[in-house]
TrEMBL record:
Lineage: Bacteria, Bacillati, Actinomycetota, Actinomycetes, Pseudonocardiales
Keywords for this protein: Cell membrane, Membrane, Transmembrane, Transmembrane helix, Transport
Keyword field contains Cytoplasm: no
Transmembrane residue ranges: 6-26, 38-60, 72-95, 116-141, 147-168, 180-204, 224-242, 254-275, 308-331, 352-368, 374-396, 403-424, 430-448
Keyword Transport: yes
Organism annotation: Amycolatopsis halotolerans
Pfam families: SSF
Family recorded in the similarity comment: Belongs to the sodium:solute symporter (SSF) (TC 2.A.21) family.
Topology class, membrane: Multi-pass membrane protein
Name of protein: Sodium:solute symporter
Cellular localisation: Membrane
Length: 486
């Protein structure tokens, strides 16, 4: 595997090198957290695609294809639908608000300290999302070096933490573009066609597999509905996704680039399911379906090419892991630290926070053994706790601060309670969380005084701000940064 090692080593060195470039660019809070709000169409769509298509979408998507066939694409399809809806309906509003976190948006809309509650929920979500992507490093490095899972997690996680700490969102954005290109070539243009041909094409696979592998709903209607509730809605409100939206130069860039990204996600989801289906034909007796991606890459591809595909898998894992990590750090400094009197604007404090949280995520990942279950925990908490409050903030003027508080607490507690009662993989936690959250939000909001007009007027003015508005901090961006984002 000498050629593979060379390709992987070159890739890793490139990611760390980009981190050093980001260190030079990240001079202000805006630079470190939202890349100076300077991204154009290409960089925006590439980085958005990279952040949402991570370990669960790649390793997990192939795993579901191995288990259910083409129906395994639903997990990633619902992610793509979430991206499309986010950018068709919400993106312009979010860019105009010019905030850094979901909590800051809630504070602006409800006129209170909603970020104290939402920050805790969002912190739990982003941390578990970081853990999910970090966990998936184990399957890739096990193939490369035949090392224990914990060592693979430590290696992959350390690389992500290093370049994320150095340059923040600038490092992450630049590495995401490289990862997006590698991932597209490795998964869509190399592994997918080779896997299909090796498995005998669609006719050959149909002869060897049960017909259910080619039914688009064989994974189950309830599971598909749950995926939509968790992932489509989760993509609408996640800090890791919103923080990428905030990097767009204008609302128009966010909308157009996001639609391109959503379509790419749909294609990627079908590709992963087909690769998993081919793996079932070629290697029907794997001990764990989660090893399907790494196994087909190891056994099917020639040296060098195999290294490229494994680098593509690492790209998917690192892009989501780094995006979730910087989102967790941003929530910590902008929402949680701010509540105890610590300033969030210092780049050094953001770097230290990113480092500490990265180490914590690596530690937790060593204790978790299922990438899809870990992702389910993250999205259940997010959607059950925050979806109703955020949608209400954007579309229902009668929603109040008290209603928001009560809804977030009730929804989160319900999700956690039913995870304990019915298990992490059950569908009931998200149903109960959303239902309780909605009832409490409407009931408490109607029972409490309306949000003052003074607060709503500021909110409305911000929502209708100019698309070409540029904050003072953005004007200090260097000519170098502007050239990089073209």
């Amino acid at each position: 595997m000498g050629g593979d090692y060379a390709v992987i080593a070159l890739y890793i060195a490139g990611m760390i090198g980009v981190g050093w470039i980001g260190l030079r660019l990240a001079k202000t809070k805006s630079d470190y957290l939202v890349a100076g709000r300077r991204l154009g169409w290409f960089m925006y769509s590439g980085t958005m695609s990279a952040v949402v298509l991570g370990g669960a979408s790649t390793v997990g998507g192939v795993k579901l294809g191995y288990t259910y066939g083409i129906s395994g694409a639903w997990l990633v399809i619902t992610i793509g639908v979430g991206i499309l809806v986010l950018h068709a309906v919400f993106a312009r509003r979010l860019v105009k608000l010019r905030v850094y976190t979901v909590g800051e948006m809630l504070d602006l809309r409800y006129g209170g300290r909603a970020s104290a509650v939402s920050g805790v929920v969002m912190w739990g979500y982003t941390l578990m999302l970081t853990v999910t992507s970090t966990l998936a490093f184990a399957s890739i490095f096990k193939v490369l070096f035949s090392i224990p899972s914990w060592a693979g997690i430590a290696i992959g996680g350390s690389i992500v933490v290093l370049y994320s700490v150095l340059g923040g969102m600038w490092s992450i954005t630049l590495t995401d573009i490289a990862q997006f290109v590698i991932k597209t070539i490795g998964i869509l243009f190399v592994l997918l066609p080779i896997a299909l041909v090796s498995a005998g094409g669609f006719s050959g696979m149909a002869e060897k597999l049960d017909a259910s592998y080619f039914e688009f709903t064989s994974i189950g209607g309830e599971t598909i509905l749950t995926y939509f509730l968790i992932y489509t809605f989760g993509l609408l409100i996640g800090q890791d996704i919103w923080q990428r939206v905030f990097t767009a130069r204008t609302p128009r860039v966010a909308t157009g680039g996001g639609v391109i990204s959503g379509v790419y996600c749909l294609v990627y989801g079908i590709a992963g399911a087909l690769i998993g289906t081919a793996a079932k034909v070629l290697y029907p007796d794997l001990g764990s379906a989660q090893d399907a991606f790494a196994t087909i890459a190891e056994r099917l591809l020639p040296t060098g090419v195999r290294g490229l595909v494994l680098a593509a898998a690492l790209s998917a894992l690192m892009s989501t892991s780094s995006g979730a990590l910087i989102a967790c750090a941003t929530t910590t400094t902008s929402d949680l630290f701010r509540k105890i009197g610590l300033k969030s604007g210092e780049v050094l404090r953001n770097r230290v926070t990113t480092l500490v949280l990265g180490i914590v995520a690596i530690g937790i990942a060593m204790l978790v053994d299922d990438v899809v279950n870990a992702l389910t925990i993250a999205y259940d908490i997010l959607v059950g706790g925050l979806l109703v409050t955020i949608i209400g903030a954007l579309f229902w003027k009668r929603g109040t601060r008290e209603g928001a508080y009560a809804s977030m607490v009730a929804g989160t507690v319900s999700v956690i309670a039913f995870m304990i009662i019915d298990g992490v993989a059950a569908n009931s936690p998200i149903y109960w969380g959303l239902g309780v959250s909605l009832v409490v939000y409407i009931g408490v909001s109607l029972a409490t005084p309306r949000t003052p007009d003074s607060i709503l007027s500021v909110w409305t003015e911000r929502l209708h701000g100019s698309e070409d508005h540029t904050a003072a901090e953005d004007l200090s961006a260097s000519e170098t940064r502007q050239e990089l984002t073209q």
